Amino acid sequence: MTDYFKKIDILIRKQQFQKSLSKLEKLQNELNAKLNNPEECSENELILQSNIYERFAQIFIDINQVYRAMQYLINMIKIEKELFKTQCDKESVLRLCNSYAKIGRCCFYCCYYEQTFKYLDYAQKLLIKHNLTQTGVYAMTLTQLGNYYRFMFQDDLAEQMLFESIKIREELFTRQSIEVADSLHGLSQLFSDEGKIDEAMKSISEAITIWTEVLGYQHIKTAKSIYLKGNLYLRMKNTQENLQSAEKLIAESLEINLKIMGEYSQDIADCYHSLGKIKAYNKNSNEFEQYFQKSQEILKALYGQSHASIAIILNNFGRSYYERKQYEEAVNCFEESIKIYTQLCGKMHGNLAITLKNCADCHKELGRYKQAYIDYQKSLEIYQKMQINSSQANQILNLMFLISDKYLED
After folding, report:
1. Residue 15 gets which letter from DSSP?
2. Closest to 12 in 3D by CA, of 47, 54, 77, 58
3. What percent of the chain has pLDDT over 90?
4. What CATH number did the domain enclosing 374 receive?
5. Averaged pLDDT for residues 177-184
6. Where are the TPR-type repeats located (predicted)?
C-alpha cells in the first residue's frame, strides 16, 4: 500500500489531479466495502483512511480549494488523535503533527489567524517534546509559522523560523529539493515585506530554478514563485523597464495557473490584482479597475465577503483613486478595507495602521480635519504599540501637528 500511495503522490506532484482523485476514490470505495462497522476499524485501517484523507486534502490545497481540504484534514486529525492515544510513538506523533501543520496552513489561507497559530504552535511544541526537530514535519511547521509571523509583522521571529526550516530541509533533502524551494519562497516574501529587494530577488530566483528543474516551468508552484518575482520588480524603482519585467512575469504566472486551475483560484486572483497595480501607474486611465474587480470577484467566490486579500485590494483601489484625486471613492474603499481588517485581525495589525493612515490622508484633502486627525491617531497608536515602522509613526505625528489647528476649528 505504501507503493500505491507513492504513485498517487507522484501524480499529485505532476498535477494530474483528476487521475489522483480517481485513484483515491477507488481506494476509498474498497475500504468502505471492507468495513462492516466503521466504528470498529483496526489500526491499519485507520492509518489507511488517514492517508487517503491526507492525499485528498493535498490535492485541494494545491488547487486552492482550502475549505474542501479542511474537511478532509479535520477527519484526518480525528483519526490521528485516536491513534496517538493508543500508540504514542514517534510515527504517530509525526502523523498527528503533519495533520496539524497542514490544517494550520489552510486556516491561514482562510484568515482564521487564531486557529492558525493554535495548530502550528501545538505541532511545534509536540515535536520538540518528542525530540523530532530534525524532521520534514518540523521543518514544514516552521515554514508555516514563518508565514504566520510575517503576516503579523513579527519579522524577527519569521526570519528565525524560515532560516531554521531551510537548514533542516537542506540536511534532509538537499539544497536543490522542492522542500527547500518552499522555504525560500516564504523567505523571499519576508524580505520583500522588509524592503530587502535584492535578498528577496536572490531567494526567489533560486526557488524558481529548483521548481523548474524538479517540477518543470509549467507548474503551479513554479508559477507562484514567478508571480512573486514579478511583484519584486513592482517594489523596485518605478521605471518602464521594471514595470515591463513585472508585467511579463505576472502574465506568465497567470497563463500557467489558468491552464492548470481554471478561472477561480487564489493565485489567479493575485495575478489580476498585481496586473491592476501595474495599470494603476498610468494616471490618465482607470483601466486598473477592471483588474482589481476581477480579483475581488474571484476571492469573494472562494472566501466570501471578508478576506485579507480583499482588504489589500481595497486598499490599493483606494490608493489608486487617491492618486487621481478621486477622494470620495478612495475613502469608500479604505473604510471597507478597515472594516474587514478589524473583523479579521482586531484593532492591532500593521495593515490596519497603513489603511487608517491612507483614509486619513483622504479626509485631510477633503477638508475633514477632525476625522483625519482621529484616523491618524488610531494609526499612530497601532504603530507605537506594535513598535513597528518608526519612520511612518514620525510622519503621522508631523501630519497630526500640521492639521491640529484646523482640527480644533472643524
Report:
1. T
2. 58
3. 89
4. 1.25.40.10
5. 98
6. 311-344
